[in-house]
Amino acid sequence: MSWTLTAADLPDLARGATLLGTGGGGDPYIGQMLVERVLGDRAITVLDPDDLADDLFVVPTAQMGAPTVMIEKIPAGTEPTLALRTLEAHLGRTADATMPIECGGINSMIPLIVAAETGLPVVDADGMGRAFPELSMETFAVYGVHGSPLALAGERGETVVIDTGDDDRQMEWLARGVTIRLGGVGHIAEYAMTGADVRRTAVPRTLSMALALGRAIREAREAHRSPFEAIAQTLSTTLYSEVRELFSGKVTDVERRTTEGFAKGRATISALAAGDDSQLEIRFQNENLIALRDGALVAIVPDLICVTDIESGEPITTEGLRYGQRVRVLGISTPEMMRTPEALAAFGPRAFGLTEEFVPVESRSLAPAGSA
Amino acid sequence: MSWTLTAADLPDLARGATLLGTGGGGDPYIGQMLVERVLGDRAITVLDPDDLADDLFVVPTAQMGAPTVMIEKIPAGTEPTLALRTLEAHLGRTADATMPIECGGINSMIPLIVAAETGLPVVDADGMGRAFPELSMETFAVYGVHGSPLALAGERGETVVIDTGDDDRQMEWLARGVTIRLGGVGHIAEYAMTGADVRRTAVPRTLSMALALGRAIREAREAHRSPFEAIAQTLSTTLYSEVRELFSGKVTDVERRTTEGFAKGRATISALAAGDDSQLEIRFQNENLIALRDGALVAIVPDLICVTDIESGEPITTEGLRYGQRVRVLGISTPEMMRTPEALAAFGPRAFGLTEEFVPVESRSLAPAGSA
């Protein structure tokens, strides 16, 4: 069933998208401001994947770049629609809808800017089911829809169309090069597909899930209930049903650098109790990739590793990590379609240069989050 | 009048194009091999600019990259035509002819590969009147035809279309970024224009001039006449009528590095006679930019600074410079359309970060070449 989204929903959506960003994905609050400015008091129509006509033409839109640059270089706001129009002109076909390629972080918002500007509906699905750092890390690609041709727009009206055939990694490599030369941020339209393709290749209902998560955290907080219980309850009826508390403690070390268009680094979280010297180490490339508790693996990509405020449950991004923060780290299971051998080849541990094998977060003997 | 060019002409054309490359432009002998392979015993039609219909649609083709990479990464040969076809598809218009953007170095040959593959004629003109390192350094741009949209093709069939409106420097910046990510070499189609545009913005008859120069050097050598006299005589009836000998001597120092997609450096040439401690210093960015004799400027970009073998007149590129070579360095005047204030803003000394002002080579008190 289709539903509508208004400016009043955006703060909750931003909160939920930050959680699904697993530390990365870019700051959705900047995207939220851009949507608010264009949307005013109108509403955006959101289409359920099950309702799409088979031949509906869907053109996803997104931002690419390092989150550390995005928070300093705010886009004009017209770039995502320019990217969509450029791809339409290249393909000689007009979009019927747009869609996120990524439901975590700012890319939950970019298609809403396009929808607000053009009046197009947005499809409630995405191609990452979270946030990932590279354009080739898409369930779309895993299940046979390729990213090319990709259209890229810059803040001075520059447009670039890249076509690398079936080679989505080469597409990412070239688009990243252009984005770096545009100053670190570019806006894109890519993975154009039909409604039938969406049902076959996209992770369904992740936009509504992000909104529900953000709302549940806020409402629990307002009612003085546990936000972590609310997160677990909200996810229990979705494809992300397993939630684990990986660690609680204090941030005692953060190492972060922006290199090759990415924010890379690691964070250490130490137990709070006197005499407890256990630690959680998290490594990230834009997004959190792996969590090791006292050297033992407790969660690994593509499962979600989410750092949140220990009390309020507010999600914290890698660029927001600070020494001394009290945090609770959650591990969340991803849908089965993101854990197949093909999917793990595209965005599993090895795709990030990790030597550890994928282990489902729910297979570790940890207490479900919210149960304490 | 139109004329035809066959494989037998290519060695002379390569020699002349190397001279006009002023040290850079990439090695035309590699281009020559690629043309020979495709052309066989057929002929290419070359159109004189004066004969073009006003609305003839001309799509120039070229290679971009650092010459130091080009000699190690030989193209498949199909990329330039793919670039042309990509630009045609983007513009929705079919090319009637191709043309060099640069008459010096390998870019004298790239349009001939396209002509041999497609049967299109080649226009006897170009947009640099020599070789320059950047795509924005074009008489086309100086006189109002801009480079965008540019199509770029890679050796694995990748295509990229870049549109930066009137901003040719931003086009160069983005295309260079893509070229670096393609491994250092890309093939392009850009500066699409009409026959009327060619007459207004291109340097005329530079392909035939390169061929005539290469032939004159060879014939003089075969007849045991001075190749330098032959060069001066050939150029006397062209727009490049002033030729000066800047220095003769031995290469005593070469400093060269490939950085940011360019070959940059300097060479020192020392007098041969015992007791003569005079020196010529040449600085280059792909092409030779400035020649200083004992610290005094004797020739500067856009005038041509050509290093040749002291006896045979064979031109030597910056990547071919070796300690101990005996060389004769020529300065050659450029056409008036390349010396206007607008032209000097695009490719005069300041465009290369030089602080020296442009001084016409013929205004220096040096003996005409070939007069000794």
UniProtKB/TrEMBL annotation, chains A, B:
Residues 9-163 form the S-Me-THD N-terminal domain. SUPFAM superfamilies: CV3147-like (SSF160991). InterPro entries: S-Me-THD-like_C (IPR048350), S-Me-THD_C_sf (IPR024071), S-Me-THD_N (IPR010318), S-Me-THD_N_sf (IPR027479). Gene3D superfamilies: CV3147-like (2.40.390.10), CV3147-like domain (3.40.1610.10). Coiled coil: none annotated. Residues 167-361 form the S-Me-THD-like C-terminal domain. Transmembrane segments: none annotated. This is DUF917 domain-containing protein. It comes from Leifsonia shinshuensis. The lineage of its organism: Bacteria, Bacillati, Actinomycetota, Actinomycetes, Micrococcales.
